[in-house]
Amino acid sequence: MFAVSRIKALLPLQISHPIAPALPHAAAFFFAAPKSALFSIYPAVNQFPASPSRTPIMGSSGPMFSRVQNRNFRPAEAAGDLTTSYPSGEIHDIVDPMFAGKTTSLLRRIQSESENGRSVAVVKSDKDTRYGLDSIVTHDSLKLPCWSLPKLSMFRQSLGVDAYNQLDVIGIDEAQFFGDLYDFCREAADQDGKTVIVAGLDGDYMRSFSAVLDIIPLADSVTKLTARCELCGKRAFFTLRKTDETKVELIAGADVYMPVCRQHYVSGQAVVEATRAVVEESPQKVQIG
Ligand SMILES: Nc1ncnc2c1ncn2[C@@H]1O[C@H](COP(=O)(O)OP(=O)(O)O)[C@@H](O)[C@H]1O
Ligand SMILES: Cc1cn([C@H]2C[C@H](O)[C@@H](COP(=O)(O)O)O2)c(=O)[nH]c1=O
Ligand SMILES: [Zn+2]
């Protein structure tokens, strides 16, 4: 087994530079918004518990941006009556390899919804501890407060039922780590009338299916972003793992992963596998790239 070097420098928890202009090398799903508008929602961070995941108290308020009206929630009291007007939720699925800009897109979408007067909250998997548990953070250091939870089924209870009912928009980052993504999205959109914006990897380093693909049949829209191949600069659709670690879930950044085009995925995988075979015979620390 090879040792994987740990991420050396965690990104700072403050925004360290302005919003990247429209994801230069992503086929972007771009919500034009002034930089100042994004920053205007950050003061909300200080109004809420530093880490809601550590204090998931019933009825507590979490990192949800202010809005008082509940536009979407409709009790399902008349279920079965065809004349009943069901809530009009939506599901939008943003998928990509790593570094293509899905967290940036999610952040912009949430910002845009908030500016349009909608009540928003963001949740990510608590498995991703790279930048702490109280924010989603992009690879270029933009951040937004969030809830970190092991399961989406805990979301309503963590926010408190009243706060959940008042929500219009739910953003989900690192969605590939949620086993209950399908059930949560279906209920939130179909029953509770929420707009759900989901961002996650469509495949792991082996290009196997991710939970994010399960919700395509439920979705209003699916957007696949692309990164730039780190080896040749062409469009990158895949994530290459540079180490010999084989477990599916391995939380890391650019020290372990890189976005690659098809050609470099295939050749890169061949190198990783050949190296693994050699090193299994003669163990030593190796990292490619
Ligand atoms: N190899 C890389 N290492 C670090 N950052 C990168 C790399 N390639 C692209 N980026 C930056 O990451 C940004 C996208 O970050 P983010 O939205 O967090 O992506 P994702 O959530 O899809 O992983 C890009 O706009 C670019 O500035
Ligand atoms: C390819 C791949 C990725 N992961 C992990 C690595 C990161 O912690 C996240 C993806 O983060 P990002 O916001 O998309 O950059 O997923 C993994 O566990 N297994 C994989 O195969
Ligand atoms: Zn390439």
From TrEMBL:
InterPro entries: P-loop_NTPase, Thymidine_kinase, Thymidine_kinase_CS. PROSITE patterns: TK_CELLULAR_TYPE. GO terms for molecular function: ATP binding; identical protein binding; metal ion binding; thymidine kinase activity. Its EC number is 2.7.1.21. One of its GO terms (biological process) is thymidine metabolic process. Pfam families: TK (PF00265). Belongs to the thymidine kinase family. This is Thymidine kinase. It comes from Linum trigynum.
